[in-house]
Amino acid sequence: MPIKIPDDLPARRELEAEGIEVISEHDAMRQDVRPLKLALLNLMPEKIKTERQLARLLGGSALQVELNLLQTATYRPTNTPPEHLLAFYKTHDAVRDEKFDGLIITGAPVEELPFEEVVYWQELTEILDWAQSNVFSTFNICWGAQAALFHQFGIPKYPIGSKLSGVFPHRLATANTEILRGFDDVFDVPVSRYTKVKRADVDQHDVLDIVAESDEAGVCLIQNAAARQFYMFNHLEYETPTLGDEYRRDLQSAHPNPVPDHYFPGDDAAAPPINRWRSHGHLLIRNWVSIVYQGTPFDMSKIGSTD
After folding, report:
1. Distance between CA atoms of 120 and 169, rounded to whole angstroms?
2. pLDDT of residue 18
3. pLDDT at 257
4. How far apart are CA 77 and CA 299, in angstroms?
5. Measured between alpha carbons, how far is 156 from 204 in angstroms, rounded to an integer?
6. Which long-range contacts (CB under 8 A, 24 or more apart) does 170-174 make?
7. Tell me, what CATH number does 286's domain have?
8. Whole-prediction pTM
9. How many separate domains does the chain show?
10. For 263-286, how does the pLDDT look when each residue is reduced to its tens digit (9 = 90+)?
């Protein structure tokens, strides 16, 4: 089944060109199904790129998915055209009284700041608290995952030193995990961050399970299965050139970073990278959507009152 996004969202044309089935709002209304209602709180500066990356994966599901785009009210990005934000994005206040089957919270380029110093920290904590009663399942990515763990469990993040960037082998840390159903025993994952979460801190909380990790990159994916909360620190949603684009951008900054590990063939930044994670990105989001679909109530008003 296709993904339902606004007809004139820029990502639509690119996804259709790739063969991703995108349904119009008119056609979606004709189908006698209830689409999964998902929200994407997009904290990334290049919002259009992030929309495309995640919409591509959501569009690979066998279910009809309605994607709603959210932004913070307390910070307005400068890397996305204001008219795009006005046309396609809502703030939390606009959806406060709505229910959602799922919520995705992205990362943000604020890792090196203490959580409380992020300008929209108070707003984000309100959204995380609101999601407990208004969202069936939440999928948190990178800094968004660190922020959620800190707010919900007090788990801190730790500076790594230099940026950890590259494509690293990961392994399954827990057997028979629904969110990683169909994954290989070892699989590659793009990583791009300055901070980490420590296993010892996670292990202090019985409701949290580490389900994927790496010898080189550390903890990758944590789940709170009972609460249907997922915390992904890395980036299976990344497109093939994304790490290279970040590397070239960082070269122009005051603190350039080394060539991403295991990304360019022969570590030659002039060589085109090869995507070794695409299938697992689709599988991860498909598994999450399946978890949401199997458990969420048909009557959305019951979300938050069925546990």
Report:
1. 34
2. 59
3. 87
4. 35
5. 12
6. 170/212, 170/213, 170/214, 170/217, 170/220, 170/234, 171/212, 171/213, 171/214, 172/211, 172/212, 173/210, 173/211, 173/212, 173/213, 174/209, 174/210, 174/211
7. 3.40.50.880
8. 0.89
9. 1
10. 999 999 999 999 999 999 999 999
pLDDT digits 0-9 by tens, 132-148? 999 999 999 999 999 99
- What is the CB-side half-sphere exposure of residue 71 using CA atoms within 13 A? 22
| Distance (Å, whole) CA 157 – CA 115 | 9
Q: Could you list the residue range(s) of the whole structural domain that residue 75 is in? A: 3-241+275-302
Question: Which regions of the chain are under pLDDT 50?
Answer: 1, 27-32, 307
| Long-range contact pairs involving 7-13 (C-beta distance under 8 Å, separation at least 24) | 8/87, 9/51, 9/88, 10/48, 10/51, 10/52, 10/84, 11/48, 11/51, 11/52, 11/55
Q: Is residue 269 part of a domain?
A: no
pLDDT tens digits for range 109-129 = 999 999 999 999 999 999 999
Q: Which of 88, 90, 223, 101 is nearest to 152 (CA)?
A: 223
Residues belonging to the active site: 142, 235, 237
Q: Does residue 132 belong to any structural domain of this protein?
A: yes
